[in-house]
Fold this sequence. Notes:
Number of helices: 9
Amino acid sequence: MSDICAFAGRCGGCTYIHIPYAQELAIKENTLRETLGAYSPLLEEIHPAPHTDGYRNKMELAFGDDGGQGDTRKLALGIRKKRSFYEVATTENCVLMPADFKKIAAFAMQFFQESPEAVYHRKKATGTLRHLVLRRGHFTGEILVVLSTTSGLTMGLHPFIQGLRDLPLDGSIVGIGHTINDGVADAVKSEHLTLLWGQDFYREKLCGLTFHVSAFSFFQTNSAGAELLYNIVREMAVPPGAPPALAYDLYCGTGTIAQIITPYFEQVIGIELFPDTIASAQKNAQLNGITNCQFHTGDISHIALQSSNKTPDAIVVDPPRDGLSPKALAKIAALSPTRLVYVSCKPASLARDLPTLANAGLTPTRIVGVDLFPRTPHIEAICLLQRENLTRTPPVW
């Protein structure tokens, strides 16, 4: 048991809670070098996180029980314990969550302990309470709260809404939503959100820009760390010399990277599979007064159509944890950019993809680590690849 948190080692949230942060960084650097293998000499440094505690701007908390015996077992809200479908670790001492999240979680747990509703039981198909999603702008203090239940919820939620609005918080709740999930899987579904009060997005500020983040859109979970990461991406992406003409932001999400690099390119094009996410990116560009950035829904096979067959000066990719598919690797190689910036939340995927890109003429030249996830084993890696032969021809499709 840790003096910091009674659930250390059991909830699965913190791996390095027992050791000093400098030691944690040393472990991560060694692990990253081992993962990179032959490319490890390119690793320049690992940037520490701006904040090691309370940094998470998103939490998906589960309703469950506190692990008590018999009649002493009580409804609880928190992080699912290891090897348990129903027990959760409550969050009053969680080092990952900001103070406002802890206050909201404590209120929600007490509120539903005193309600007629029960926790959803997957095997018995009884109960209604499933998850509580909390999202927050680190630099704005704006908070979204989303309650996930089954369709069998019987009680009205007006007292819950009012109780949330009355909480004394450092930030402010700007929206409260409700989503229905009648599925068996222990996951938050984002298919339909009913807005109970306020707005369906919160604002965050990064690198001098403002972003509207909806309840279920992707956004880096560590805002201060993301700002550090994006500044490094921007520095790697911009070629020296005359203002470059074209950049792509692939897997662009809500368009954060694309908009941050737009001042340094004549045109930036963002590509993302999900229409709702692209709609958010377009709104954000309009919000920030950006006119040289376009966003399109689709996979990267649509790039040639959107670019009028122009050869990009730079491509930024921030793919899912599994990295780039063989098809994506082939398309990127065919586009023949001057430079490619590969942002990886799973360095093993980056290490797997680098030989393929190198064989296509994109030579890895720099790798930088950024710790976005203190107390956990995860680390972000950014790799700059540059084309050896700069005599390029447009791709033929």
